[in-house]
Amino acid sequence: MEIQPRCIATAIGSMPYAEPSRAMDVIFSTIPDAPIWPQLSKRGLHEQMEIQYSEGMPRVVIDEAKARMYFNTGGDYSEDLAAFYEGYMAGEDTGDCSIAIYILQ
Predict the structure, then answer these.
(1) Residue 54: which residues within 8 A CB-CB, separation 6 or more?
(2) CA-CA 20 to 30 A from 76: which of 7, 52, 61, 84?
(3) Residue 93, CA distances (Å) to 25, 64, 66, 69, 89 in order
(4) With contact defined as beta carbons under 8 Å apart, do 57 and 84 qualify?
(5) Between vectors from CA 89 to CA 47 and to CA 96, what angle results, nearest 5°?
C-alpha cells in the first residue's frame, strides 16, 4: 500500500532574524504555502509568542525593564478570571484569545 499524503508543511513561528524581510525570504523560498506567523524575538519583547498570545488575558504584566511577562497573582483575582472566561465562552472579543473562538466554531 502506498501512502499518499495530503498535507502541507508548516513551521514553528519563532525565527532567528531581526529583519522581517529575511524571515519572509526564508519562508517563501522553503515552504511558500505554509501558514506561518513568524515571531522575530530579536526585534524585541513584544515579538515573543507568549506575549502576543496573552493579549487580553487578565492580570498580565509586561515588565519592559526586566524584559519579561508574568501574571499578577496577588490578591483576589477570581472576578478578573470569571469575567474573562465568561466573555470567552460568550464569543466576545477578549484580545488575541478570540482567535480560538473562531477556530472552534
Answers:
(1) 60, 69, 96
(2) 52
(3) 33, 26, 29, 22, 10
(4) yes
(5) 10
